[in-house]
Backbone:
């Protein structure tokens, strides 16, 4: 049984100044719809919704999901 990703949360912890977290829209035309900039040590909790199909992270950060933890290489 496949579990939907809709409604899942991720946690992003900035390891450096100026980490960007970008929400991307769902649908035929993927577009940026929201951007947050995090300072070192700040945490953002983000959710996948009807409107958000993907989340892009720029900068040095740790990302926590129900599948595990990963760090960006930047």
Residues:
């Amino acid at each position: 049984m496949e579990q939907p990703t809709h409604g899942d949360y991720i946690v992003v912890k900035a390891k450096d100044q100026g980490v960007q977290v970008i929400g991307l829209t769902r649908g035929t035309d993927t577009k940026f719809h929201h951007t947050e900039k995090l300072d070192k040590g700040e945490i953002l909790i983000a959710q996948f919704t009807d409107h958000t199909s993907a989340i892009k992270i720029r900068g040095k950060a740790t990302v926590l999901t129900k599948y595990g933890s990963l760090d960006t290489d930047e």
Summary: The chain has a mean pLDDT of 86. The beta strands are 9-14, 19-25, 32-38, 43-47, 52-58, 61-65, 68-71.
